[in-house]
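Hey, quick one: can you model this chain's 3D structure?
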Amino acid sequence: MHVFDGFFEKMGEIKFANPHLLWLLLIIIPYVAWYIWKLHRQHASMIISSTLPLAQAPKSFRYYLRHLPMILRCIAIASLIVAIARPQTAGKQVNGHSIKEGIDIMITLDVSGSMDMMDFKPTRLAACKQIAGEFVKKRPDDNIGLVLYAGEAYTLCPPTTDHAYFQELVKTVRREPLIDGTAIGDGLGLAVSHLSESKAKSKVIILLSDGVNNAGFVDPHAAAEMAKQYKIKVYTISCGTNGRMAGIKVPGYGVMQFKTEIDEKLLKEIAQSTGGKYFSAGNEKKLREIYSEIDKMETTKREEKTVIEWKNEHFLPFLFIAIFALCLEFIFRFWILRSNPS
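Sure thing. Here's the predicted structure for all 342 residues.
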């Protein structure tokens, strides 16, 4: 056991479990005073004509070391007192109290047929799944859920902090068995219903679409009004470049080109009415940047209070010093410095 390893590096971090015992160090002062008084009492008186012969007499090594036993005893007493005061350094955090206030987030993802377009690599839907998963990994304290919509909407994952479960569900996202179409109002309305009872101070919906609202039963503006009433902020993202042609694999026909039509006006109105923001993503790189920007805007509040237990004991080095000093005192007092060694 290397009790002295890193000893001096730890000195600046020392805390004592029994600091009141350090007052005992003051007993060294009366001990030294008693020692000096005792030396004066032991001096014998003798009248001589001259001290010159005594001054010229050589002094032995015992003369120079005559006070060493007293010094060693002081060191032993001081080290022993420090040892029983129990010097310690901070160990690992063993008692921690953290208050974390997460955000409730619903990702509302368009899974209509046009999400198979290949202007994103490998497709719009595959890129959206991957980037949404990356976004969730950065937010461990948030409740996050997932709503899918095409011609209708359904909940794939209600808001949860079990992000491993969420990530597994994201991998299963596909267009089937939903009816094709783009029911933006239904998707938004379903996401709002999940957050309507939330007690979180911040509630957010990330709505992604690559088309025009052409299906469903809920009017998108009505769904946005509901979000506003429940103080839910909606960030809208258009996926693809409006008016541009993009390829899509059609069974039996190979890759065919189709024009992208996005109702950007509607997406902007939804975001504006709920206090959110509209974004346009023309490729997967831009989509990743958008999610990063949302991540920065919607920060999670954290308040952490840490209680540290002082538990790494360092009394052994001081105890060994005390024992070593006492042993040296014994050797010098009763052997090396004896006045009549045998």
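One thing worth noting: Confidence is low (pLDDT under 50) at residues 1-5.
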